[in-house]
Fold this sequence. Notes:
The protein has about 120 residues and is an all-alpha fold.
Amino acid sequence: MSARRLSELDKGERWRAWLHTVAVLAVAWVVLVGVYYLVPTGVVPASRSGADSFLRLGAGIALFAAILAGQARRIIRAELPQVRAVEALGVVIPGADARSAGPPKAEAEALASARGARSAPP
Length: 122
């Protein structure tokens, strides 16, 4: 199977390629949003120790790198690399943003905890 350009496809094939991409992105975004909102509800417990935080950070970076490498491999092997690249960007960029920006509830709890620790008498 050799890679083809999107411009080489007829109109029907282009539509099917883009509809498939939109469907894949919709499923990926539902999963990302689900994970994003499950974290602060307690389903995934928050860590309190510094070492645990560094382990979670390392695991998150390793997971992101693995997803990025997998997406790169899929683009290289794809029949339509242009469409696959759009798919990869649609999955990797929002996923990185969701992991880097803490969930609102978790941020509020951390801020409240920090304020309480500073204002508490010794």
